[in-house]
Amino acid sequence: MSVDYVEIAVTDLSAAAAFYRAAFGWETIPYGEEYTGFRTPAEPEGHEAGGFRLADEVVRGTTLVQLYAEDLEACAEAVTAAGGQVVEGPFAFPGGRRFHFRDPSGNELGVWTTA
C-alpha cells in the first residue's frame, strides 16, 4: 500500500495554485470554485498527486506532508520567492536535512534531502 493522493485545505485556491506552480513547478487542474487538482513534474500524464480544497480556515499541527528536493537551499529560496515563509531550518535529522515552510494559506509542509 502506498500514498496515492494528498488533499490540502487552502483558504484561497488561486493563491495556492500560483504559489505551488512558482515554488515547485506543479501543474494545476481547476475543477470549479472549490477544488483544484495538482500534478507534480514527476507524475505520469493523466495522474494527479493531489488537490487543493477550499476551506474557511486551515488547521496546522496534525499531519506533516514532506516533499523531496535535491537542492534544499535552492528549494527554500524558491519557496520564499513564491510567497511562502520558511519557518524552521534547514536542519539535520536522521536521514538527511530538511526545512519547514508555510504556504499562503498557512499550511506547514516540509522539504527534505538526503545530502
Automatic annotation (TrEMBL):
Residues 2-114 form the VOC domain. InterPro entries: Anthracycline_SecMetBiosynth, Glyas_Bleomycin-R_OHBP_Dase, Glyas_Fos-R_dOase_dom, VOC_core. PROSITE patterns: VOC. It comes from the Bacteria. This is VOC family protein. It comes from Mumia zhuanghuii.
